Amino acid sequence: MPKRILSGTVVSNKNDKTIVVEVERRYTHPLLHKVVRTSKKYHAHDAENRFKVGDQVRIEECAPISKLKRWVALAD
């Protein structure tokens, strides 16, 4: 099964080797038929601490690295 790849914006890089990425998703509401935006935050592994707040990054699914980290950051 292929690994999922999501793209989003870095909202925090305060932890060592970890970034928090906010991924926005748009979909049509089933009853109201309006476009709704939802966002979710993912903790991703950033081994070289190269990403800063506001950067656009892609994250890829991986084996668990820690309690919260199940994603690895890729350059976008």
Automatic annotation (TrEMBL):
GO terms for biological process: translation. It comes from the Bacteria. GO terms for cellular component: cytosolic small ribosomal subunit. Keywords: Ribonucleoprotein, Ribosomal protein, RNA-binding, rRNA-binding. GO terms for molecular function: rRNA binding; structural constituent of ribosome. InterPro entries: NA-bd_OB-fold, Ribosomal_uS17, Ribosomal_uS17_bact/chlr. Part of the 30S ribosomal subunit. One of the primary rRNA binding proteins, it binds specifically to the 5'-end of 16S ribosomal RNA. Belongs to the universal ribosomal protein uS17 family. This is Small ribosomal subunit protein uS17. It comes from Tepidamorphus gemmatus.
